[in-house]
Amino acid sequence: MKISLIIPAYNEEKYLGECLKHVAENGTALFETIVIDNASTDRTAEIAKSSPFVRIVHESKKGLTQARECGLSSATGDVIAFIDADTKMPSGWVERMIKVFSEDPNVVCLSGPYIYYDLPVYSKFVVWVYWIFFAWPTYFVTGYMAVGGNFAARKDALEKIGGFDQSISFYGEDTDIARRLHSVGSVKFIQRLYMPTSARRLKEEGLFITGYRYVINFFSIVLFKKPATSSYNDIR
Length: 236
What we know:
Layout: E1 3-9, H1 16-25, E2 31-38, H2 44-49, E3 54-59, H3 64-74, E4 79-83, H4 93-103, E5 107-111, E6 114-116, H5 121-142, E7 150-154, H6 155-160, H7 173-181, E8 186-189, E9 195-197, H8 200-205, H9 207-224
Parallel strand pairs: 1-2, 1-4, 2-3, 5-8, 6-9
Antiparallel strand pairs: 4-7, 5-7
């Protein structure tokens, strides 16, 4: 099984180097790593080039779903994994993912929660409560859930559903891909498959405001197959 790891990156010079360091520590012989330079105007491409295991693909049309679709079309793997440029991939993440896909051919998508490495203790507790007492039961009701910077899917399944909906700008794009993949196979959400990530959006816009936006867009995708909001702020 060949894995392609896709990292969309728009002006991520502050975080990308650390992200790639953690990717390298997972043993890059197991997968190909593609950084999508998504119309960056800073040193993102230069930083990506400094890692010998990285292949850079330039996507001139700015947008998260545009970058994800570009990654899908550029990847050569059987399974396509997506992380964000401000994540710190934990040791064994790739192996755990491969194990699930290898053991169950019905699984077309695999995801897990975020944990935030730069939040104060109280806020980390609130996030933990959210994942355990809200997100986890919701997953069992819907049958699907995905976190955009911490998921993987079989390439043939992504192609079968037509890839990413590029009309969705930001909020709800991960729920949309999980919803549509659920129509062709099993979508698994596993709490232990966590991904440490930056809390920059939560810090900038507020923990509860950000949570509210994610929640209303999740349910809007589930109920109406479209996000509730279309605008978002780039936070770098």
